[in-house]
Design goal:
Helices cover about 45% and strands about 20% of the residues. The protein is α+β, with helices and mostly antiparallel strands and about 190 residues long. Among the domains are: about 40 residues, no CATH class; about 80 residues, 2-Layer Sandwich (Alpha-Beta Plaits). α2 crosses α3. It is flat.
């Protein structure tokens, strides 16, 4: 006799329960297959993707390729001399040389965007804009969002010329030191 409040077990309930478990397992396997397919696709992808990466996390071989390129361009050394001076293997240099470019390299003018998280206090954004303007960089756009939990987000698009291009790192360092700047990221450049 069945106990009150509990359904009577029968073979239909057991079969339904097993069917549900099998369906859940096959769904998990399908999800695993789609994740595996995505990973394989990403690893075999030939399309170009660009990232802005902090130089401090790069392996030394990549940093050395940058150093060789800098010596060739600025010190007028031959590639052979620069590779030898840095102590890099030629195969490593030639493997990566065409894929590594400094953020500032290229044309006469650059436009880049700075994404900021700022403490919600009067004058912080004004101090940031003063730093940019004092280094002769042209501010193209400013987008400021409403603060949430005391933190406001802003994006500033800045245009530099060839003369001001090398000042960018110093300007970013000065901005990051302003009291109330919680986060600073470069989110794009032309």
């Amino acid at each position: 006799m069945a106990r009150p409040g509990r359904p009577k077990k029968n073979s239909d309930n057991i079969e339904n329960s097993l069917e549900t478990k099998v369906t859940k397992k096959s769904k998990v396997k399908k999800d695993d297959k789609s994740i595996d397919a995505k990973i394989k696709e990403a690893q075999n992808s030939e399309k170009k993707e660009y990232f802005i990466v902090d130089k401090r996390i790069l392996p030394s071989s990549i940093k050395n390729v940058l150093l060789v390129n800098d010596l060739v361009q600025n010190e007028k050394l031959s590639k052979y001399e620069a590779i030898k001076k840095v102590g890099l293997s030629r195969s490593t240099y030639y493997k990566y040389k065409d894929y590594i470019k400094p953020f500032f390299e290229g044309g006469q003018e650059k436009v880049f965007s700075i994404h900021l998280a700022l403490k919600d206090e009067p004058g912080i954004l004004a101090r940031i804009l003063d730093v940019i303007a004092s280094h002769d960089m042209n501010i193209l756009t400013i987008i400021q969002n409403i603060s949430i939990d005391g933190i406001g987000r802003a994006t500033i698009s800045v245009q530099t010329t060839q003369n001001t291009l090398r000042k960018v790192e110093g300007v970013l360092e000065l901005i990051s030191e302003i009291e109330g700047v919680k986060e600073l990221r470069i989110i794009g450049s032309n």
